[in-house]
């Protein structure tokens, strides 16, 4: 109605309103960051429901992360003023898991299939590569994994790959064999990897049109956020879901009691669902995972008659932040020129900072966060981004020391810890008895005297007799093993059976299709970790680290308790699904009151009052791996653009002059992308040029464009350097002494000199090695022991 319509379009600009009110088959919204794309999607969903054009259950909205999904659901419900249950708002992966669990039988899969994460994939590939001696042809678990993933994202399977294999190329033939065995092992274990979740759903729909029709009928409105990052398999899935249903199938569906009448058109068929996609090709950052910008570019061809809406005004950031973003992204070729603008004014300048070390940089971030907090910015409205997970170490160390509340989003690695994987493997083995990987993981964890030879014996016995690993365990007494080992194997099988029995609902519940009477996930987990001896082995261990491991397992138990409480009636498989999806992408709950730490990839679609982009160094951003990839540096630039455009009011850009990587400290160069930001936009607190002038506040970024300046050339001296890892000069010290980053370039030291170090105190130089900028002082400190320091940047002075 007119009134409700105006409420939902109130405060939208004319183009946004047009997109919300459009009622055709296909709608494409292309626009830069922060222009309200996601907001339009949200309002569009609310508008469809409020006008009674769609039931919540007829909506399928795809977001990029679980966090984004939860947010979108919340906003839709807030707009409607009521719950909208039945609406599917989820990631591609979650939506596909839901479909596959329901329809698993059709494609010969158990509905309790396991979802393998990256580490599981590599474990399996490692075994295959070893058995095939494929490493001699250069195969590693990592590169085989990448290749398989690429193929699956292209919807290739073993058969289609085999057809195109060059049989004269031993590497290709070998890879085919790896791919074949990998596929077979997952199938035997009733397991799917992440890419399978999408491709198997496409396969399901293509092979079983009747199943597809059920979903085509159900979802009348499909909306996809971040469309620029869909890969071919995801694109194919969308195409399947938006197909019209022909009249004869509609008749057939009606005969099976499916309600179709309300939906049919004049021909008696059901028209395809309406599709809305929104995206920004400047934010395409998943090409390495097969994301295909062409999906957005060719949308109009694929969906003829599609309406295209362009949004230009940015509502998120200040003009200074947008000008920086515009300047950076304009360096990418092959893009449609578009400029973000805001009506909200310039805002503060961007703050720049260069630390000596990652710790120094982290200290700057922590200090600034405290200052922001004191000025009234909530911790939850502050985020710190980085390119690689390894960069969290220094940040976390300093944050802990500063008692700053923070949370690492996504990369917590909790579920990747060995002890958590062990406990989870017990649960998986109970839920999916076919899962050999899980069984082999727990076979001798905790230690029960079952060695690798026995494991292999069980595996080959299974192979020879066409048994599953679990069945072979049951037949252990026929394997001629010692009585103790046999008893250990049988004992484990009994334990798993007993746990499985706990999960069976009572008779009436089974008849009613509910889970009544089944043990809670937490009870089963407690039973397993106690009876298997897993938790006691950790608690009673002499290894001090095992104490933490035991606590982690207890934390997992606590998590299952939360899960049981929040999801009454949910099954073990539900829990396992949630863990695999959440652990892989991001976390569901949005902790308030903490600073968020995350990778740039995870940051997509989010926004914060203040954003810190850290580690802006060559090798990190652009990442060194991108150098060899075609289009790599351009994609890294888009990643930087995504990071910049997350900030509403305050943006901080920081880097360190040296950074510990792989146990060494390397001298770092400022990221090339920093030079692309007009000087006037950044206020350097400590400049990236290694200024020597005392109190010199002149930003050395000015040198950036001077040929041969500190940034322009690749300084051959700046090679990897092995110096002490613990030198962590404090920012205040640096500021006090020089007002800028220290450069000891011309400090002459020789054996016998006394020096003072900001952290280690006084000491005597025992030796100087290396030349020029690579000179290293070997110092015997009075209290801190022996250290090696890179003289050029070490926070030292000669006494
Ligand atoms: P991204 O490309 O980063 O995903 P986006 O295009 O999806 O960005 P949104 O997140 O939807 O942008 O919007 C950015 C911010 O601007 C949000 O805080 C949103 O609420 C706000 N916004 C969008 N449109 C308007 C408007 N017409 N009036 C006021 N605020 C708006
Ligand atoms: Mg968005």
TrEMBL record:
InterPro entries: DExx_box_DNA_helicase_dom_sf, DNA_helicase_UvrD-like_C, DNA_helicase_UvrD/REP, P-loop_NTPase, UvrD-like_ATP-bd. Residues 688-709 are annotated as: Disordered. SUPFAM superfamilies: P-loop containing nucleoside triphosphate hydrolases. ATP binds at residues 31-38. It catalyses: ATP + H2O = ADP + phosphate + H(+); Couples ATP hydrolysis with the unwinding of duplex DNA by translocating in the 3'-5' direction. Pfam families: PcrA_UvrD_tudor, UvrD-helicase, UvrD_C. Its EC number is 5.6.2.4. Belongs to the helicase family. UvrD subfamily. Residues 319-605 form the UvrD-like helicase C-terminal domain. One of its GO terms (biological process) is recombinational repair. It is an enzyme of class 5 (isomerase). GO terms for molecular function: 3'-5' DNA helicase activity; ATP binding; DNA binding; hydrolase activity. This is DNA 3'-5' helicase. GO terms for cellular component: cytosol; DNA helicase complex. Keywords: ATP-binding, DNA-binding, Helicase, Hydrolase, Isomerase, Nucleotide-binding. Residues 10-318 form the UvrD-like helicase ATP-binding domain.
